[in-house]
Amino acid sequence: MSLKKYEAVRKVFECGSMTLAARELGYTQSGISHMITSLEDELGVQLLVRKRGGTELTQEGELLMPKINELLNLNDSIVRMAREQGKGGTVKIGAFTSVAVNWLPGILKAFRSSYPEYRVNMLNGDYHDVEAWLAEGEVDLGFVAIPGPTGCDCIPLKEDPLSVIVPLGHPFCSLNEVPIDMAAREPIISLLESSAQDVHRALDSAGVNPEIRYTTKDDYAIIAMVREGLGISIMPELLLRGQISGVAVRRLTPPVSRTIALAVAGSRRNIPAVKSFAACVTQWIQQNT
């Protein structure tokens, strides 16, 4: 079976013209016409018909085109995976802000030093974004908070304590630690609910239901709003590293933390580039945090 014949049919369908399809695929028009005729003979049906406005699918062609797309897409996937199994390849990773800012530059430097043959594409978002990218196959690996998404292998990396941040001069500044139930009496600025699992878990554990005054997707916008006295917030300490000008940070009591993990999409776990990146991450975390 020659996939080039199926590629020719799809390209003619997309272009609506054998002449344009031939130009894009690098064939002569007669070559494209011959491939399509040969495939029609093999299948026993006519797939395309020429009309005044261009070339169109026949009724049989319309029925078969979804399967032709599936066949060609599957072939593309096989070729891509085969290339990734060999030398070189691209690792696609997703990360939330605190990891992207404080860990990834060092991790990427170490990875490039050890594996210069691999390329890295990075997407930056929040928890919800990273889990969606993993589920949709947009990334091979993603930094997540435990519990991680289903269908992934999760490698725990680091416990990251949660702290209260308040504007300078706030009464909490006189405390070494802030009880969770006391923090819950203050108006809170939070991430969007889909990415605020850490905060909700801390508050739920204390059985409190605070006033969420503002929500935003931007971590650093929260710090700026706290600085202006619009409320307080509960945030992971990794996120606050180097970002506490104009605010005070106090640990919560009883202590609450998040577990940062590296989630590897189940279908990608055996790809050499992915395995190498995961190993580099765990080694870097052990040596630098």
Task: Report on the architecture of this protein.
This protein has 289 residues and is α/β, with parallel strands linked by helices. The chain has helices spanning 3-15, 18-25, 29-43, 59-85, 97-102, 104-114, 127-136, 180-183, 197-205, 219-227, 237-240, 272-288, and strands at 48-51, 54-57, 89-96, 118-125, 141-145, 152-167, 177-179, 188-191, 212-216, 233-236, 247-253, 257-265. Strands 3, 4, 5, 6, 7, 10, 11 and 12 form an eight-stranded mixed beta sheet that branches. Strands 1-2 form a two-stranded antiparallel ribbon. Strand 8 (188-191), helix 9 and strand 9 (212-216) form a beta-alpha-beta unit. The protein starts with a helix and ends with a helix. The mean pLDDT is 89.
Quickly list its features:
12 helices; 289 residues; two-stranded antiparallel ribbon; 46% helix; 8-stranded mixed β-sheet; alpha/beta
Number of helices: 12
Q: Structural class per helix/strand content?
A: alpha/beta
Count every beta strand, where a strand is a DSSP E run of 2 or more residues: 12
Distance between the termini: 54 Å
- Let me know the average pLDDT: 89
Write the layout of secondary structure elements.
Layout: H1 3-15, H2 18-25, H3 29-43, E1 48-51, E2 54-57, H4 59-85, E3 89-96, H5 97-102, H6 104-114, E4 118-125, H7 127-136, E5 141-145, E6 152-167, E7 177-179, H8 180-183, E8 188-191, H9 197-205, E9 212-216, H10 219-227, E10 233-236, H11 237-240, E11 247-253, E12 257-265, H12 272-288
Parallel strand pairs: 3-4, 3-5, 7-11, 8-9
Antiparallel strand pairs: 1-2, 5-12, 6-10, 6-11, 6-12
